């Protein structure tokens, strides 16, 4: 009733393999809550972790325990009472550091509590030893010296013993009342356990019923999923049909516009058909002109051919005249050279004479 949580974290819980004492066995399938509890009635500290309805850690911390960090995210401690070694795997190094610091604080607090309890035990034992020593001495004195004065002198010791006896009786009465309280609490716990067992059985029956309902719902869900898939396929087909209809509508609009264009062209052709006779007469007139032009063109071509022949003949005559002129010029050059030679000869003769 007086136990309260003082620190809580989450971690994966492991226990050492009892056969090999080396390998770790997982005690939880996933990260669970791990808490430090303080019992004010017993002045003790515990580490408790529960996975569902199963208690996987119930370790009372003593001053002799040591929490060891074996990696950045894993730590362990040995519990001699449970005859096992617990291991915790954390998600971060910071969580491991906080848990280790809290373990050290709780360990120091447990040590202080143990020291205080030992002091109380030593104090009570010293009081009992003192009272035990005084009683035989007083009886020995009374047996040896049986005078009234000596008996009167030992009166305060007997009064002290009576007060101690009364205290012991009171303590026994309180312990008996505490035993009755504990018996009542034990009975209450048994009744609570019976109620929890009945509730657990009811919950187990409810779980079976829920499992059946879950199976039915799962089958119904599968059937609905298949139906949804069929409907989705039908919707896809409908969407495809809509797309095809849209394409056909666009094609139909395009054809209608083409038909309208063709109708306008047909009207234009009909209008043009009305002036076809006039165009035919004009075409005949143009054809006659064209024929006359072709005849004139033929005559002109004949003239051009005759002129070309004349030009060729004139070119031939010009080439012939050029050849003759060239020969004449060559002969003339030769004659001019002879005249120059003759003139130089005459000049020479004139100078000599």
Counting DSSP H or I runs of 4 or more residues, the number of helices is 4
Portion in beta strands = 15-25%
Which structural class fits the helix and strand makeup?
Answer: alpha+beta
Low-confidence stretches: 132-154
By oligomeric state, this entry counts as single chain
Largest sheet: 8 strands, antiparallel
| Strands, count | 8
CA distance, first residue to last residue: 176 Å
- The percent of residues in helical segments reads over 70%
* CATH fold description of one domain: PH-domain like
Q: What is the arithmetic mean of pLDDT?
A: 81
CA-based gyration radius: 67 Å
CATH architecture of one domain: Roll
Explain how this protein is built.
The protein has 353 residues and is of the alpha+beta class. It has a domain at 5-116: PH-domain like, CATH 2.30.29. Helix content is 72%, strand content 15%. Strands 1, 2, 3, 4, 5, 6, 7 and 8 form an eight-stranded antiparallel beta sheet that branches. The relative contact order is 0.04. Mean pLDDT is 81; it is low at 132-154. It holds the Pfam family WH1. Residues 1-110 form the WH1 domain.
In short:
The chain is α+β, with helices and mostly antiparallel strands and 353 residues long. It has helices at 93-144, 148-153, 155-274, 276-352, and strands spanning 3-16, 24-26, 32-39, 44-51, 54-60, 68-69, 74-79, 84-89.
């Amino acid at each position: 009733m007086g136990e309260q949580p003082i620190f809580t974290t989450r971690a994966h819980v492991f226990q050492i393999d009892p056969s090999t004492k080396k390998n770790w066995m997982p005690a939880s399938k996933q990260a669970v809550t791990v808490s430090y509890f303080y019992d004010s009635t017993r002045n003790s500290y515990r580490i408790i972790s529960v996975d569902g309805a199963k208690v996987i850690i119930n370790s009372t911390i003593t001053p002799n325990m040591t929490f060891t960090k074996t990696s950045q995210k894993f730590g362990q401690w040995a519990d001699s009472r449970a005859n096992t070694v617990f291991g915790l795997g954390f998600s971060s190094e910071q969580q491991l550091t906080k848990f280790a610091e809290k373990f050290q604080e709780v360990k120091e607090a447990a040590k202080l509590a143990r020291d205080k309890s030992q002091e109380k035990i030593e104090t009570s034992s010293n009081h009992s030893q003192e009272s035990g020593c005084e009683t035989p001495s007083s009886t020995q004195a009374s047996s040896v010296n049986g005078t009234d004065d000596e008996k009167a002198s030992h009166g305060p010791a007997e009064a002290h013993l009576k007060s101690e006896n009364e205290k012991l009786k009171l303590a026994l009465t309180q312990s008996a009342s505490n035993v009755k309280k504990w018996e009542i609490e034990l009975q209450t716990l048994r009744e609570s356990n019976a109620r929890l067992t009945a509730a657990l059985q009811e919950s187990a029956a409810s779980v079976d019923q829920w499992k059946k309902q879950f199976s039915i719902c799962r089958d119904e869900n599968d059937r609905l999923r298949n139906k949804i898939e069929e409907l989705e396929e039908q919707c896809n087909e409908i969407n495809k049909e809509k797309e095809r209809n849209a394409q056909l509508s666009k094609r139909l609009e395009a054809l209608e516009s083409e038909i309208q264009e063709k109708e306008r062209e047909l009207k234009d052709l009909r209008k043009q058909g009305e002036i076809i006779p006039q165009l035919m007469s004009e075409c005949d007139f143009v054809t006659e002109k064209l024929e006359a032009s072709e005849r004139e063109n033929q005559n002109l071509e004949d003239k051009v051919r005759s002129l070309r022949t004349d030009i060729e003949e004139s070119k031939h005559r010009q080439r012939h005249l050029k050849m003759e002129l060239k020969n004449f010029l060559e002969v003339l050059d030769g004659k001019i050279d002879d005249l120059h030679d003759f003139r130089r000869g005459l000049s020479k003769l004139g100078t000599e004479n």
